[in-house]
Amino acid sequence: MTEMTHPELSTAWELFDSGDPRGAMRTLRFAADSLAPGEMAPLVGKLAQSAGFDDLEKSAAKVAATPEDAVALYAFGYDCVERGVPALAVPVLRESLRLSGAHRVLAELAVALEDEERHAEAADVLAEHDALAQDWPDRYLLAYNAVMAGRLDQAGRVFAALGAAPEQWRAAAGRLARILARAELAAPRDREDLRGWHFALTGGLLTTRSPYGFASMTGRWAYLQDSVELCRLGLERLRVVLAASGHAPVSVGLLPDRGSQVLGLAAASVLGLPAAPYRPGTPDVLVVAYDLADCERKLVAALRERAPGEVLFEHATCWTDPPGAAADVSTLLVQTVVAPWAARMRFSAGGEAEDVPADARPPEEVAAEIAAASPVADEGDGDSPPDPVDGLAAFAAGVREAWLTAPRDRVRTAGPVRSGRFA
After folding, report:
1. C-alpha separations of 307 from 14, 276, 310, 400, 408 in Å
2. Domains of the chain: which residue ranges?
3. Model confidence, pTM
């Protein structure tokens, strides 16, 4: 290891030398914006070599040798994006853009910032270099990132001025048009309006907000050990949404994974509907998922298109790695969830940890327990804003014109509402 003065870079080298490349990369990612490309390149090259990424190893070596070469910097930044470390690409591509003023560098920098969910920065750099930009994809990316940064006026203005989308960008243009239309209807009041922004971005209705840690989580969960009571609350709020929006499913479609079987049977009991295995194309069916991450990917992909009257309900929606189809109704947004019937840890009255094995009862028995549970919301920590059911009902009624009217587009970003997450 060469001598250096940057403490985070020194720490990253120490972690790598001690046999912890993951820790080294994590440290490097957080420090990247304060490092010159030539400083980080030798360690990135070592990390790439250990991972078998020959392309990144070679481009890192080139930058280590010629840190003022704009072409080498672009190649290094491009490879960082392709290998899933856009945080490292950002300062590299900024330097390449400063040296070259090249359009392709601007576009790649915008992509790297977008991948990092640094949407305001992406919009700013695209606007700053508008002389280099083209309508597609550059100004489209400006409009998209402006939306994700909560800048609806800027996004609408830029998007309205775009020329006709080329064929390869028509789907993206359609998604953005739908987001802007839903945002106008939902009118998110600020960047803490999780329900409003969730509807604008995904077209889905979020029925509960976490009552803990609002200052850092803004209504989302990072980690949750779920309960039958919270599952029952989710079904009760689903009933409220269906009534407020004027939708009345005639059956419940059961997905094949265990969690969805349990919750689907509970939903059928609570709503008084017949249940049967889900068949794509069935009209007026309520498709119930506990967590779409537990479902087969092909099945989730098929759920992007809806049958007439079909409603997709997901209890626990992952917000850091969203499913391939955005649910029409979600009980909660969570990064990591432990289902009530899964193996878990609990603490005794004396504070000792103990392992609880998975609940092996038949799905029907667990579903009956959920249906019989009390649907009372957790009062939380007292520092989070209230989430009354009448507010949910009013929101659902107010946006019902645009609900269930579009494909279930996957949205890969948390958008304007920020929440703490595990690294």
Report:
1. 56, 16, 5, 17, 12
2. 7-184, 192-398
3. 0.94
